[in-house]
Every structure is written in structure tokens, then in C-alpha cells.
Write a structure and sequence with these properties.
This protein has 419 residues and is of the alpha/beta class. The protein has 12 helices and 16 strands. Strands 1, 2, 3, 4, 5, 14, 15 and 16 form an 8-stranded mixed beta sheet that branches. Strands 9-10-11-12-13 form a 5-stranded parallel beta sheet. Strands 6-7-8 form a 3-stranded parallel beta sheet.
């Protein structure tokens, strides 16, 4: 049975295709059912003669690819609850929250998101529920459970493994269950039983995970909250370094030119996750302003501000060296509420990326970094019609990305009135 093609023309004052190329003025995009049919000037883009067309003229607005968030944890509430306590919820409650958060993300313009670790099968179920149309959200790229040492960061998600043999077996189990990539904890983190200033897995264990994942054409990403973890992950060939913190075992920051050079030579991706730190700082400032503060609390807050400055400085230096920086929010982890991915794009620009580079890091760059480069992050004929329309010109003012006019996922205009 053949169906009549459904066409939509989007006209705007400017188009950003996601590649980093200069914007196209007085532009249009033609959607045919769920795909992009053509992209060009308003005078060039036309539907076939006799076709039924929905025409949308947004005037002084910008069309760009749907955003790609390279790092989410949809099961978390984003209200500061520690991951150990989030994981105490039953899986059905975590899945319901994840679905709500995914809807927030989609309504904000994120049409593809990578899930970087959820408890048990919550991540798998979220992806399948969205695919079936049972929930509304971005297209999901998932790791399933993050791989961690016994008692390591996010052990409560259910994939503890020690030694090369256990690591290899758990990678195989995750791939069997449908993992799109393997997330591995190269250091501790915020989990109470872990140690964020110490490396966890050895280079041999990390390399085993990486090699086994690549054997099945899956990418790898490593949580690295200290310099030792970054070094180990690079030595193991890991594809993405998450957080990329240049701190020693005592929490002291020092720019590591050797690791920066290795990152550039390895052609690895870095996901710095900066706004999650700022969100925590802002929450602490608000709490101390309301309830008063002790000298110890003020000192801790000042230390966190310095750490953020160091992280931002390092990100800018890495970007200037040509290291690939991808935008991944880490939301809704810690105090980073859902639906605020634009905050990560803005802080990357504050760290030294140009507005164009920041947008690329959240479109084609992010898509490539998560293995979705052929289907997301760019406005090109033949791709899924994942499209974002915002007011004004985000190339001159990134805050325009907050002013969403419309979101299209696979050609469908998203009804954004109710969350």
C-alpha cells in the first residue's frame, strides 16, 4: 500500500547546517515525511508540483539541526540528590522519571541524546519505549549500566566487574542486552564508596573493555575524575574522555601538557561536563544565602569555584590545540535540572570556544562523538528530519537557543505545550 508523501517547507532568515560553515541567509528546508528532502535558499527549495505542502515561515529565526546531548543520566532528578540515593528508587519509578526527563530534553530542542549510565535495564527500556512511541523523547544512544570496579562509581547500577576476565564478560553481557557503547569508570566519582581522586581500573582492564567493545564495533567512553584516570584511559585507547580532570591524587590542579598532547595525537573526544559544576555552585550559593554559612562552607564553595575555573581554562586550551570537544551536559545529574542543555553550550563558549564551535560541539560534533554522525547533527538531504527552529541568530547570541520556536523529530512537529 502506497501512501501520499507529506511535505513541509520551513523558511527562515538563516540556516546553520551544523558543520561549522557560514550560515545560509534567506534559507529553507524541505521535509518529506520523516527525512530531509532538500536544503537551500528560499528561491531554490520547492516541493514537487501538485504536492500537498505545509508551509511554515518563521521570519527572523534560525533553523539548525536538532541538538545532540552527548551525556545524560535520565533517571536522576537533577535536584542535588546523590546518585547513591537516587538508585534506592525502584526501577519502575526511575523509568517514569527518565521518561519525563527525556520529554523535557526533546521539548528544549535535543533530538538525540546519549545515556551514560542507568540502573539495571532502565536505559534499555527508555530507548525502546521512545522507539515504540510509548514515550516522547530524543533518539537514545545508550550504554545501559556503566562498567565499574567493586564499590566503584555508580556500582549501584549493577555492572561491577574486577579483572580482565570479568570486564570482558560484562562487556559481552551489555552488548548482548543492546548497549550502543560501553561506559567504563576509570576513576571514582561522587558515589560514597568510591574515591574520586584515585584511578580505579588498570590500563590492562580498560584496554580489555575497549578492545572487546571495538570487536563488536562499539565505541567506549571513560569517566575520568583525575589525571591518573585520564592517562590510563588514553593508554588504553578509549574513544572519549569524560570530565577530563587534570587533578592529582590530592585534588590539586596542574595543567598536563603531556596528556593534552596525547589527547590531540589520539584524536580522542573530550566531554568536559562544565555546567554541572556551575549548577552545584549556584545551588550552594543560594542555600548559604538563605540559611547562613560557616567559614568552612565558604572555603569549600571557593574551592569549587576555583576548580570550575581550572576546568574551563583547560577546556579552552584543549580546544585551541585542536582536541575534539563534545557538548554533553551530565544532566540531570547532581543539581543540573533536565531540559537545560543550552547551559552546557554557553559555558563551552565562555571557556574559549567560538559560538560556531560551541554549536558544532552540540550538533555534528556531538553526533560524531557518540557514533551517530551519519544520522544526526546536520541538516543534509537524506537524513532524519530532526530540526530545531529558534528566534534570532545564535551565532551572535547563544542565548537565542533558549528561545525555541519549534522542534521537529523525524519530520513530526512536537507539541510542546504540556510536559
Amino acid at each position: 500500500m502506497t501512501t501520499t508523501p507529506r511535505f513541509t517547507i520551513i523558511r527562515v532568515d538563516r540556516l546553520i547546517d551544523g558543520s561549522g560553515a557560514p550560515p545560509l541567509e534567506s534559507a529553507a528546508v524541505l521535509l518529506e515525511n520523516s527525512t530531509i528532502k532538500s536544503v537551500g535558499s528560499q528561491s531554490e527549495v520547492r516541493a514537487p508540483d501538485g504536492a500537498t505542502v505545509t508551509e511554515l515561515d518563521y521570519g527572523d529565526a534560525t533553523v539548525l539541526p536538532g541538538l545532540v546531548d552527548a551525556h545524560t543520566h535520565m533517571m536522576a532528578p537533577g535536584d542535588g540528590t546523590l546518585g547513591d540515593d537516587v538508585a534506592k528508587d525502584d526501577d519502575d519509578m526511575l523509568l517514569l522519571r527518565a521518561a519525563k526527563n527525556a520529554r523535557h530534553a526533546l521539548h528544549s530542542g535535543v533530538t538525540t541524546a546519549r545515556e551514560n549510565g542507568a540502573k539495571h535495564r532502565v536505559g534499555f527500556s527508555l530507548k525502546e519505549g521512545i522507539r515504540r512511541g510509548l514515550a516522547s523523547g530524543p533518539s537514545m544512544v545508550i550504554s545501559g549500566r556503566p562498567l565499574t570496579m567493586t564499590g566503584g562509581h555508580m556500582w549501584y547500577c549493577g555492572s561491577e566487574a574486577d579483572g580482565e576476565a570479568e570486564v570482558r564478560k560484562e562487556v559481552r553481557s551489555l552488548i548482548k542486552e543492546g548497549a550502543d557503547f560501553i561506559k567504563i569508570m576509570a576513576t571514582g566519582g561522587s558515589t560514597r564508596s568510591s574515591f574520586d581522586n584515585l584511578a580505579s581500573y588498570t590500563v590492562a582492564e580498560l584496554r580489555t573493555a575497549h578492545d572487546e567493545a571495538h570487536r563488536f564495533n562499539k565505541l567506549t567512553a571513560a569517566h575520568c575524575a583525575n589525571a591518573a584516570g585520564v592517562a590510563n584511559a588514553l593508554d588504553a585507547g578509549i574513544d572519549m574522555i569524560i570530565h577530563c580532570v587534570f587533578e592529582d591524587e590530592f585534588g590539586r590542579y596542574e595543567w598536563r601538557q603531556d596528556l593534552a598532547d596525547q589527547l590531540a595525537a589520539a584524536d580522542a573526544w573530550v566531554n568536559p561536563t562544565l555546567h554541572v559544576m556551575r549548577a552545584g555552585i549556584e545551588s550552594t550559593e543560594a542555600r548559604l544565602k538563605e540559611h547562613g554559612s560557616t567559614p568552612r562552607q565558604v572555603a569549600a564553595l571557593d574551592a569549587n569555584k576555583r576548580n570550575l575555573e581550572h576546568r574551563m581554562e583547560a577546556t579552552g586550551r584543549l580546544a585551541k590545540m585542536g582536541v575534539h570537544v563534545t557538548a554533553g551536559s551530565d544532566s540531570p545529574w547532581s543539581h543540573y535540572a533536565p531540559g537545560l542543555f543550552v547551559s552546557e553550550i554557553e559555558i563551552l563558549a565562555e571557556s574559549g570556544l567560538t559560538n560556531t564551535e560551541a554549536i558544532v560541539s552540540a550538533t555534528s560534533g556531538a553526533a560524531t562523538s557518540v557514533g551517530a554522525g551519519e544520522r544526526a547533527g546536520a541538516l543534509e538531504p537524506g537524513r532524519p528530519a530532526d530540526v530545531l527552529v529558534v528566534e534570532g541568530n545564535p551565532l551572535t547570541d547563544l542565548s537565542q537557543l533558549w528561545k525555541v520556536r519549534d522542534v521537529f523529530k523525524a519530520g513530526e512537529r512536537i507539541e510542546r505545550g504540556v510536559l
